[in-house]
Records
---
Amino acid sequence: MQARNVRGWLYAGLLSLIVVIAGCSDDQTPPQRPPSLVEVITVQPQRAVIGADLLGRVDAVRNATVRARVTGVVTDILFEQGSLVQKGQPLFQIDPAAFKARLDSAQADLQRAQANAKSALMLAERYAPLVKINAVSQQEYDDAMARADQAKADVLAAQAAVAQAEIELGYTRVVSPITGQVGEALVTEGALVEASTATHMAIVQQISPIYIDINQPIAQRARYERLIKSGELSAVQGSEAGITLKFDQITTYDQPARLMFAGMRVDQQTGQVILRAEVDNAQAQLLPGMLVRAHVPQAVSDEAILLPPQAIQRGTDGRPNVYVVQDGKAAFVPVTTGSTYKGKVLIREGLAPKDEVIVAGFQKIRPGAPVRTQPWQHEADQ
């Protein structure tokens, strides 16, 4: 009986100890996670050139189609296809034999006409003193003068025929009308080319410098013009007006393009206008018909907000956002982005001066998480 009482006391004591331990455990607060360290930049408005990223198509400054101007058989191709040719350089030879014969015939006709004119003139000159003493009639003298004038006209006609024959003979040597890059030969040796249909023989294009025709929505252009007129933005001047060309998202063409003019006609189908730029193309990297991306400066802002690209985050809806520090915690803020300037992204809406934007340390944070900040270590390198 006494052993049973001792066992009951032990059970009661053990139960009390478990209750005490459990009570102590409920009173403890779980340890707080320390704030994450993030790198930030403080928003400071600065001067920036605001541009538009547009699509452009490359076009040759001059396009010359080489055509046949006489009918004949091609006997020679005198150029290397795809090479640079000079204005006046021979490209094709058309059989000249028939045209040489026509020239010889025209020259013989000219000599005959000149001889007849000389004879008619000499006769009229002999009749001149005789008509005064009535040795010949006035009618005979008038006829002699008319024959002399007609012979003179025959000489002029013969000279024109010779000139025409020389021109046609010259056309058998087909030359480049401009300096530029010649494409493939569109005819081969032995082909019959015709003047009546102006047979296409080759195409020569001047591609240095070369044109870039850029399409811009008229609404976008009008918006920048309004902002400049209101004084909110200023016009681009000098070297900042250069247009940057890209072959793709990464590769940039090493020469800036010069804006020549902005079109005054809006395409009714697309609502766009054409901007034409010109750029040096000595290495022939830009070819007619090629599509390029063009960054076209539109205006200058003295209060622009720029962020490095890594500061821009994308939400589940794909829209741009940034993390900012508010009251020691990370906050997700939606922003509206614009073009890039010197490798940074223009923020059009969503941020204000002196906002602290997180640039590095995203893997450690979420919205509402406490953070510790330090200046962005790479900012000095930008």
---
Amino acid sequence: YGIAIQEDSKIIVAGITWVDDSSDFAVVRYETDGNLDGSFDGDGKVVTDFAGDTDYGYAAAVQEDGKIVVAGLSVGTTADIALARYDSNGSPDTTFGGDGRVLTDVAGGNDWGFSIAQQTDDKLVVAGIAVVEDVQDFVVVRYDPDGNLDDSFGGDGKVVTDVIGGADSGRAMTLQPDDKIVVAGYVYSTTVDIAVVRYNSNGELDTDFGSLGKVVTDVSGGTDRGWSVTLDLDENIVVAGNSTSTSSDF
């Protein structure tokens, strides 16, 4: 589900593998020629189990210090945002959450982490979905370098955004040079539309962006979803996804 390139051009891929009828985080590192990198946990592959049930790794990032961090979800009683961090050799980084793993329950419902990035101050930002009182919303969570929630962000490290009052799905994130956070995805009302939300570095909505920090775009009158977001050389926000001319279920 996720890919990142190291400074030495080695390739990190994150996703899932099935072990004994449950899914776990899977991280694989390749040499630049596509061969598995044997210096990464001995065979190029690392598997991480969180709760003995369902774990999904959705996004990967390589930190400035070469450590590798993967974000996704882990299912216990509910699904929680899950992060795992590894030293450059593939070993769990025990300075992160005590054993290399961190779980975050946003508001008691199901939570997904779909994107991760490191800020210039080494804090980690994760974007995805949180279900709050049976409603699905955008969520952004920020952690300090040790994996603790950063309470300077939204007061408790977690910011939930109801974009238009229906079901919202935050799927991708990019960080601007001014430390503003841009999250893209889609929202459901009478149709499914692309949505982009921008936050200031403290987690507040950036009211200079769109309508109180939010932009919703109906491309086709049908089903439109944003799956990826980046900045171009002029720092314009570019979103890619898919669009169909007829409506479909969310």
---
Amino acid sequence: MALEVGIVGLPNIGKSTLFSALTKVQADAANYPFCTIDPNIGIVQLRDPRMSRLTELVSPDKIVPATLQVVDIAGLVKGASQGEGLGNKFLSHIRQVHAVAHVVRCFEDPNVVHVDGKIDPVGDVEVIQTELILSDLEQTERKIERLSRQLKSDRALASQMAVFERLRDFLGEGKLALRMELSKDDKALVSELNLLTMKPYLYIANISEAGLRNPEVHLQQLLELAAEENVEVIPICAQIEAELAEMEDDESNLFMEELGIDSSGLDRLTYSGYRMLEQITYFTAGKQEVRAWEIRKGSTAPEAAGKIHTDFEKGFIRAEVFHYDDIDRFGSESSVKEAGRWRLEGRDYVVQDGDIMHFRFNV
């Protein structure tokens, strides 16, 4: 299943423009609310310099980079949890993604209408978070109602009831579910609800071109809020990203240099998405193909093998392993072996970011 990051926010804050620029998928964008109804979906490639180096060293017939699926979800408004602005439909789209990128307008432009008539990043965040919390609260209350009926015949469910009642009270205080302290077992129990506010998230500050050089007051307000929440903020100018998307690599690199940008918004969002989802990359590298595989940090060798095919995991015997840094240094797999950096690992081996692996299996 592809990793998905959902782009959310109020209407008219530049979500669809940003989505189109990042994914090169044309999304509806207009100066009025709800021009996006159904979610737009785009696949973005992780631009990993290690892939370029492996391609140079191995000269494969085919390269397959790691990817991230980005979903542009229609703008939410106050009252979305009660159905305002077709909100319930939009909220259901958010439930399907693994993480959330919350786009917040941090630029002034009299020609682009703000749904509330003023630029207020912190207020905008509060509107979105409140709607997500209210939707989760409704989900939790329905769960409690079901458990109440089941408790009459199964008292063993009392411990589950206690967890969900605690969750209900926590959400009722206006807090995000992911801030709640839960044991591993309780977290697994709560995960069944697929809560909106349990998903990891970051902020994308949609700023003006001038704001790229001199951060403006609206961005500072969002940065202060994010610091309190210990959440990342990625400042992006959607209009600049739209221009970069139309350029060749050499031209875009020169343009970014002129603007004082180290990397594109696409790269920053993709890398941040991987960090949020605690993903790492391992590689398979041979003459036929160099491919990047995304796995969760802490995965074992058999679990990594299962990403390629379930038979690889079922019949796992050993993994041949060396690290990207080794082949980058020595220049070839044979040189890595001569240097004693190639090794065999068993079922308990925890895969590291940048490992290059070949699996031995028998089904």
---
Amino acid sequence: MKPSLDYKIFTNYQLGENALTNRMVMSPLTRCRADDNIPNDIMATYYSQRAGAGLIITEGTSPSRNGLGYARIPGIYHNAQIEGWKKVTDQVHQMGGKIFVQLMHCGRVAHPKNVPAGGEILAPSAIPLTRTKMYVDGEGELEIPVAKAMESIEIAYTIKEYRQAASNAMKAGFDGVEIHAANGYLIDQFMNPASNKRKDKYGGSIENRTRFAIEVAKEIVAEIGAQNTGIRISPYGAMNEMESNFDGVDETFEYLATQLNRLGLAYIHLVDHSNMGAPEVPRSIKIKIRTIFNNALILAGGYDKERGEKELEEGNADLIAFGRPFIANPDLVGRFAENARLTLPKEDSFYTPGAEGYIDYPYLKK
């Protein structure tokens, strides 16, 4: 094993306008601690504890009250949420970290009892989820009702909500925005024919199914700049009842990467969930996207230090994202540097309210 100081993963990297101190990214991790969907003090502690990451990407954060699908996930569409996130970004910056907010609209993966008054569950098409259930506080796992198929005016309004959320993110002190276009949520629902049966300009062909993703990206770029904007995608993803290997899947993501490259986004964040039982993303599509897209590529999906380093050394990625290891090891960068044993996460507290299993994991050195 080579000395840790020789690992590329610990070297600096310039990501758009952001100078990162290492190439380790903290993946977006839903933790369900935002009471009333407002970021709070324990969330500020949680993120600041992990500010040693070269880049933190927050948990999925809704750009709209319509996008709140799960219990206790945060939003960034009103002033109290902006002020709550300011506590987070201030503490992360005080610790020398960089942090992007991930904008996630749940689309059809939602329960009305998790959506505030006046909110509505929307999706590209009114197609039921047959295997997925949703947790509601005090009621447990419930069946998910069929979402309303979006009308053209609702699509246009939702795109504007993404742009406003990006503006709000910069007011809250974030260093940038990641667009969540993966894992079976709204943008992925438009791209995947399992959830998109539309007959208008947002359905059918590859160009039409990717139109919503590209229009969202264009609006955010116009608001905060391409170098402050990234996107997460999950080719061959099966989460939330997506069709993993649909006809033209490679061509869909190649076309999307081409259009995002033209916009000049700071990065594409490609996640492979095969370590969690999903189909493996073929190496060929990763290489193709790497070739098409000129800026940074982040790879995610069950990486440890050695596997991540190998991807960097071989030029397959610029940054490596780590998820669960960061949950249980706030000092993950230091532990990797010292080849120290990692603490294992407590899975039964991943999504429970409160500090336990959230901000009480031990440090190697305090």
